[in-house]
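Reviewers of the previous submission asked for a worked example of the structure-prediction workflow described in the proposal, so we include one complete record here. The input consisted solely of the amino acid sequence. No template or homolog information was supplied to the procedure at any stage.
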Amino acid sequence: MRMYLIALNPTDSVTEGFLPAAHALGLDVTLLTDRAEPHRRAVEAAGRDAVGDIEILECDVRDHHALITRVATHHRPDAVFTNSDHLQAPAALAAAYFGLPGKDWRAALRTKDKAETRRHLAAAGLDAVRSVELAAGQDPEGLLDRPVPYPCVVKPREGVASEDVVIVAAPDELLARCREIQARRPGAALVAEEYLPGELHTLETLGDGRRLHVVGGFRTRLSPPPYFVETRMTYVPRHPDPVTAQVLAQLDCLGVGFGASHTEFVVHDGRARIIEVNYRAVGDQGDLLLRDLLGFPLFEHVLRTHLGEPLPDHLRLRRDAAARVDYVCAPTAGTLAAAPAPADLTADGVRLAYRPLRATGTRHPLHHTNRDYVGVLRTTGPDQPSVDRAADAFLATRRWEFTP
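From that input alone, the workflow returned the following structure tokens.
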């Protein structure tokens, strides 16, 4: 059976998760991307034993017409899949065109477009978040005549990974931030919406279009304002039932129920309010953590849904363990002069896996997003205190040095 895996830049989710899963399932994989050479290097580094023989072809993967044409003129597809935020709608349209299982393209578009997410939930009476939209190229001065709530969060309408997401407190600051973002993203529409207070959580789900399983979630620690960089995710096996029910009702309204989904939400006074829905598996090695922690083939299950196979009525998930993911962030622009090497450690039942994300000797600006990550630490163990002690000790005894 042939699976077309659609991707932009290489990610750990694809190289360490989905490609090995496809290999384990015996699938022939054609990887369509607009960045073929980086994927060839990533696949070569992973090794044939891990990922098998991967065919990599160039394609304008953001254009569903080009995507359909590339598949139609190549091998007959049995599945079309992507784990990219940006490519969910094109991949869904391609899957639908070939009569294959996949996400509803309307749900993919609805969740990618943050303004449409708000409109859809408000129209259904589930949640009304005060927000205004600034079209691409529109002068931010026009926002001064509109009911912008303060403080508010400014973000690209179709952004990811906290890219250009910032909180502002007054009109002059709003104008300045919008103009800064427009200078970096001249073709991007923006959204300014009310700041939603509360602790940030995630809900991780897996569905086959008929049933939706809750895999668990995370409690997320963020960088100080005005930015929203995730610095730690602590695994939560089960959110309170009323909270989970509220989030699931909103996901159902949005049409989310096929494959993996990673939903960010806040809880304030018992009310769960969605920040955004990422209609794919949790990234930044959170998915690798779930696979190792819960002891079930997460990536294989996701791919099986795209092959038309039903999920089990009950997932066999390990519930007697704890985990967290820590992200080491660059504190400033500059060169990473020294950093720890990759490490896999085990002590007192706690497992730690550290992976560098930036090579020493490289110079980078400061982005205030996950592009500032220089390393990631995944820690799993029998209980949260043991996990926290081990992770804190690792981070305290390693050094990351930066030069201007």
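The mean pLDDT is 95. We consider this example representative of the routine output the project will generate in years two and three.
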